[in-house]
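Input/output pair, single chain:
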Amino acid sequence: MKYIIEHLEPKLWKWCILEYEHISETVGKDNLWFTNIKNKKEAKILAKFGKVFENKVSELNLTGICVLDPESDNLLETSDKDKFEYFVFGGILGDYPPRKRTKEELTINLSKSETRNIGKEQMSTDNAVYTVKQILDGRKFSELVFEDNVRIEVNEFESIDLPYRYNFVDGKLFMSKKLLKELASGKELK
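Output:
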């Protein structure tokens, strides 16, 4: 089973690197692919976390693909692990309100593939991958605990609101410790 992140941002932002590193820690470097990586310097950075392809996933001629798209009518089930070999996610910073970019940039281009959702709420890419891994490992979607619209305190006067869904695991938000530290510092993550 491979988890494929189709990088759809114009460059590899710092927040992308931190999320992608967190995904690698979650599923293992050997199970993670990055596609649509045109910049050689960015490819070198991502090679530490998984296999890197310059091509888009639609150009790899793979079969057994499942695109994770919030617009899909079908919820991902544990049994899908027997049906699909590749699970494709959009590496996109979500917009609020959502613009349905996964459908526009991935689903349409992978028309021979099937789609599944993991709820209709937007998730960070690392949380989407974690959710899929949990389901494929045997948990039901209804057993997962989520927190929506997370607020990160910067100091007593400032906070950052993240209008996304995050997994809540062992009493903590499922978020890269490095990313959480960067957000709490108030620095821009570009």
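The chain is about 25% helix and 25% strand. The longest helix spans residues 14-27.
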